Each structure stands twice: as structure tokens, then as C-alpha cells.
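Please review this one:
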Amino acid sequence: MHVQRMIATHPEARRVPDQALLHCIEECYACAQACTSCADACLAEEAVHDLRQCIRINLDCADHCGAAGRIATRHTSGNQHLLIETLNACALACRFCADECERHAGTMEHCRICADACNRGEEACSAAIRSLRRSY
């Protein structure tokens, strides 16, 4: 896992990186990619006007996941409270996006795939939050 190897080389990393946080970083980036791709696929659908909300939520979720992944990656000795709140916001964005994409998943495979990625992102953020809270 390249995230773990990279973070472990940081001169200020005081301990082995938290596995739940490492998994969260990977899932956040995977979710951001899936949401961006899903929004683009929605734009190509014939009934794009019916997918406006899905596109907006996809883009919001992609932004939250990208930001959470970057902030978590920089977390070597930073503000743990800010990181937890960032992950909370990301988990919420993932939940909203998964719910919206699940509405279209029966007819649009890209929405099904995106909903799955969002569900994994939400769970990974929640697990990282639990782990971070235990550590302080």
C-alpha cells in the first residue's frame, strides 16, 4: 500500500500510521474518483435533466473525499479535532451520495458502482474516526 509507505517515511511521523486512517485515505480517493466518473456518466445520459441532483451530489462528494484524503495524508502531528470533523463531513457526503445514486442504480450501472464506493467511503471514514478517538 503506497499510502502507508509514503506516510511512514515522513520525518515527523512519530509512530506506525493508524491502519484505519490509511484505509480511509485510500477509500476517500477511490470514492472521489468514482463520484467524478459517475457525474460525467450522468451528464452523458439521455435524461440528464432528471440527474441534476445526482450530478451535484456526486461532485460535492468528490470534493469532500478529495479534501479529506489530502488532510488525512498530511496528518502527522496536526489537529486531530479538525481531522475528525473533516472525516465526519466526508462520511455525511458519502451517505447522501450513496442514497442518491442508489435511486438510479437499477437502471444505471455507474450509479450502482458509485453507491458502492460511497458506502465504502462512509464506513472507512467512520472507522477512522473511531480509531482516532481511541488514540487520544
